[in-house]
Amino acid sequence: MTTTQLLPEAPTQALPPPPPAPATFADSPLARVLRQPFLLGLFLPIQDGGWSISTLPRSTDWHFDYNLALTREAEALGFDLVFGLAQWLGKNGHGGAMKYREQSLDSFIATAALASATERILLISTLHVLYGPWHPLHLAKFGATLDHISGGRWGINMVTGHIRSEAEMFGMQTPEHDLRYEMADEFVSVAKSLWRSDDNLTFDGRFWHLKEAFVSPRPRFGRPILVNATSSQAGMHYAARHSDIVFITSPGGAEIEAALATLPAHIAQLRAVAASEGRQIRTLINPTVVCRPTTSEAWAYHDAIVAHADQAAVDGFIGTFARSDAKAWRNHQREQRIVGGNLHLVGSPEEIVDYLLRLKAAGVDGVQLTFYDFREDLRAFGETVLPLMKQAGLRL
C-alpha cells in the first residue's frame, strides 16, 4: 500500500483554537522550572537494566519502589523533572543472559502514580499514541485528571512509534515516518481542543472522529506539559507546533566532543522551525554520567561497565533499532550502546560541570540524566556535582 493510499480525506472543519501553553502562566509549575538557568531531569530506570547493557553489579532496579525512592531523592536535590521510557518487548527482551529490558513498568501509569507521592517535581509520562485503540478523547480525559491530581505538574511525552515489532504486537503495520507525525499532529490538536473547549466538540478528521465530546476538569494552566523526542524534519515541525520541551539526540554520537561539534547547528535548526511557528521551545538531552572523584577513577568505572557487556543483548538491542526508520542515533557506536544514554559524560565532578557548561553554550537547555548505578550515582551527583553546578551558575 502506498502512502497516498493511506491518507484519508482532509477534515471537514477546523478545530477551535488551542489553549495557552502552561509556561504562559507565571504561577505554573512549568514556568517555575523554566526560571532555572539549566534544566535538570532524571530518566527513571523503569525497565530492567536501565540504559546500560552490562552485568557489572549495581543497585539499579525497575521496580516501582526503587523508582519512587529515586524520584523523591531527585526532588529533594532540586531536580526539575523525571521521565519514564515506554517500550513494548516480547519475552527475553533484547536477549542475552540478562534478558535486557524484558521486565518494565508502563511509563504512563508508573510516572503518573508518582503524582501523589511528590510535591514539586514535574512528572513526564511517555505514550505511544498511535498504538492500539488510543483515541484523543482518552488522553484528554486522563491528562486532565492527572493535571488535577498533580497540580499541573504532569506532562506527556507523545511518541509515534518507529519499531515494527512493537506495532505488530497490536496487529498493526507501522505507518511511514512522516505520516506518523501527521497522525500525531491531528491527535494532539484534538486533545488540545478538548482541554480548552467549554462546549461539546464534534470533529471529522483524517484519522480521528468525535461527536459531542467533552472533557473535565479543565487543566489548571491551559493544558498539560507537552514533550516529544525528535531529530527529523517532520518531528521538528510537530515539535514547533505543539511541544514545550523537545528531547534531542546528538547527531555526532555519544562521545562528548563529537556531540559538542554537531549540536549547535542541530539546535539552531530546531529553534528556527519553532520561530517560524511563533513559538519558543526548550531542549533536553540525555547524558549518562560516569563520575568519580578523579578522572582516572571515572574512566576505570566506565571501562569496567564496558568490560562486563552482555554482547548478545547488545546485538539484540542494536538489531532492533537497525530495523527502524528513526532518524536519531545513527552515529552511535557499538561500545557507546553498552554504557547507554545519548551521550557520555565521564570524569571528575569538575569535569562533569565543565561538560554541562559547554552543552549549555552549544544551545542545550538542560539534561535528562541517567546513571549506571542509579541509587549510588545519583546520591554522589547530589553531593559532589550539584554544588559545583550552582557555583557555575547552572542552577539557582
TrEMBL record:
GO MF annotation terms: monooxygenase activity; oxidoreductase activity, acting on paired donors, with incorporation or reduction of molecular oxygen
Keyword terms: Flavoprotein, FMN, Monooxygenase, Oxidoreductase
Pfam family, one: Bac_luciferase
Stretches for region Disordered: 1-22
SUPFAM superfamilies named among the record's database cross-references: Bacterial luciferase-like
Top-level taxon of the source organism: Bacteria
Comp. bias intervals (Low complexity): 1-13
CDD domains to which the protein is assigned, alphabetical: Alkanesulfonate_monoxygenase
Residue ranges constituting the Luciferase-like domain according to the UniProt record: 41-365
Name of the featured protein: FMNH2-dependent dimethyl sulfone monooxygenase
Organism from which the protein derives: Chitinasiproducens palmae
